[in-house]
Amino acid sequence: MTRFTKSIYLLLLVGLAAACNAPETTGNSNAQNTDAPTEAAPEQTVDGWVTLPSGLMYKILRKGTGPKPLPGQLVKVHYKGILQDQTQFDSSYDRGQPIAFPLGENRVIPCWEEGIALLPEGSKAYLFCPSRMAYQDIERPGIPANSDLTFEVELLKVMDAPKPYDITGVTPQVTESGIEIYVVETSESGQFPLPGQKVSMNYSGYLTNGNKFDSNINHGRPFSFTVGQGQVIKGWDEAIRKLQVGEKARWVIPSELAYGDGGFGNVIPPNANLIFDVELLEINAAE
Asked: Annotated catalytic, 4?
């Protein structure tokens, strides 16, 4: 869902949710102990609930048979979430759309980082998150400050993160504006996008030092925009018209056709040439 429009949506999953019968807790789980423990407490299991040294509690409802996710891999998760008064504050099931995110990159709350990593693919579980592993004293929509949260999560898929395309030996097509286009997988579809048509695609964006700054694949669904409507940076509106449906290509876009001397926040430096590995999935009717 990342959009290379005038703003980039870098996924920071701060509105997660899940529903279940939370275990009872005693004392103030929101209080933070500033004294360093001399040794980690062992895991404890009561009525199927496992308590970890971090304070996370989880209960397996269905154990999957797939692999456990590793840092850097993408996970696709359905979830529901409730407050301790049993009020549901969010649900991907209700939206009909699971979320996807890379594990180990702090895109989700600490409770999820630790809890999802424990689950084999195909598992369903409850996660009880003390507020210090959730949003702490920050109020979120539907979530009061200092709230302990309970999530029902279902790990649908574990996927490898996208890797940069190999352009060894590929001769680029260079447009008059200076865009370099390396087609790494060709197609005979003969379908090129036209202005006004809506395209659906996958992409990963990199700085010239190799650092990835965004990818729709991390968000679990294709990215769409209408060609020639100024919804994306100028380089995209030009380069997409050189690509056939089914093709994969690398675009090297000069900074003046991207974000220029202003850059974009702390994500893209000023005067940065940008690299995109793209795949054109579909062209829809003109809008």
From this structure: no
Query: Chain-centre distance of CA 173, in angstroms?
Result: 31
Which of the following is catalytic: 90, 143, 276, 283?
276
214 is known as an active-site residue: yes
User: Is 8 among the catalytic positions?
Assistant: no
* 189, two tokens: 């579809």
Give the amino acid at 85: D
Tell me, what DSSP letter sits at residue 6?
A: S
Residue 277 C-alpha from the chain's centroid: 17
> Which of 101, 203, 223, 225 is the catalytic position?
203
Which of 58, 126, 151, 259 is the catalytic position?
A: 259
Q: What would the pLDDT profile of 158-197 be if each residue is shown by its tens digit?
A: 998 888 999 999 999 999 999 999 999 999 999 999 999 9
Q: Is 213 noted as a catalytic residue in this protein?
A: yes
Q: What is the pTM of this model?
A: 0.65
Q: Which two tokens stand for residue 163?
A: 């890797």
Give the position of tokens 């100024």. 230
| Predicted confidence (pLDDT) per residue in 11-41, tens digit | 223 333 333 345 544 333 333 343 444 444 5
Burial class (CB in 10 A: 0-12, 13-18, 19+), 286: exposed
CA–CA separation, 277 vs 203, rounded Å? 5
Instruction: Name all domains of the chain by residue range, CATH numbers in brackets.
Output: 44-159 (3.10.50.40), 173-286 (3.10.50.40)
Q: Which of 143, 233, 240, 275 is catalytic?
A: 233
| Phi-psi category of residue 103: left, alpha or beta, with phi > 0 → left and psi -120 to 50 → alpha | beta
Which one-letter amino acid corresponds to residue 106? N
Identify whether 233 is a catalytic site residue: yes
Q: What type of residue sits at position 177?
A: S
